[in-house]
Design a protein that fits this description.
There is one protein chain. The chain has 182 residues and is α+β, with helices and mostly antiparallel strands. It has a domain of 93 residues: Roll (SH3 type barrels). 24% of the residues lie in helices and 28% in strands. The protein contains 4 helices and 9 strands. The strands form 3 sheets. It has a 4-stranded antiparallel sheet with strand order 6-7-8-9, with no helix packed on it. The longest helix has 21 residues. The chain is elongated and about 140 Å long.
Length: 182
């Protein structure tokens, strides 16, 4: 009965000798690598940026427009428009009392063309009203004056106001609307 105890003792002794041989400095390079990796694992915080001092700048350009000028924010208005360079004649508009000058061009539709006594005319429909338009007539909110009438469109020149308060002209047209959806 003693033999199995001796065998077990020998096996345990051999295992202990083998394990003690592994820890005997053979793997010092592995231990050094583990130690060096552990040293590099610390977090690094970048340095704070340098704070620049605030230097105030004064607005001293007397020849430029003042962005806070009350006249620029609330211009002199007549009829909903400011009086600026190249402004149209507002009094003449009021005197004309043309119904087509009360509607935006986007709301108007050209629905027909007439040629009466060699004078071309367009038939314009707006807000349940049907009106005839010829060269020289005024239509639209943007002081549109009819320059030419063809069987397909009404060409006009509008006077519009830009952001600076000055007035300029642009060309626009009213196209003939055909079909059910037109």
């Amino acid at each position: 009965m003693n033999k199995p105890k001796v065998k077990t003792f020998c096996v345990v002794f051999a295992a202990l000798c083998f394990l003690s041989a592994c820890g005997d400095g053979e793997h010092e390079d592995l231990q050094a690598w583990i130690d060096s990796v552990g040293n590099d694992q610390r977090g690094k915080i970048p340095p704070l940026p340098k704070i620049r001092t605030y230097v105030p700048v004064t607005y001293s350009v007397s020849s430029s427009l003042d962005p806070f000028d009350d006249a620029k924010l609330e211009p002199d208005i007549k009829g909903g428009y400011a009086q600026g360079k190249g402004a149209p004649d507002f009094d003449a508009r009021e005197a004309r009392n043309n119904i087509l000058e009360r509607y935006s061009l986007e709301n108007m539709r050209m629905i027909g063309y007439l040629n009466i006594n060699n004078q071309p005319m367009a038939v314009v429909f707006v807000d349940q009203l049907t009106k005839q338009v010829k060269v020289g007539d005024w239509i639209g909110l943007d002081f549109g004056r009819v320059l030419r009438v063809t069987d397909q469109e009404v060409e006009l020149e509008e006077t519009i106001q830009n952001a600076d308060g000055d007035w300029s002209t642009r060309n626009n047209s009213l196209q003939l609307q055909t079909g059910e959806g037109g």
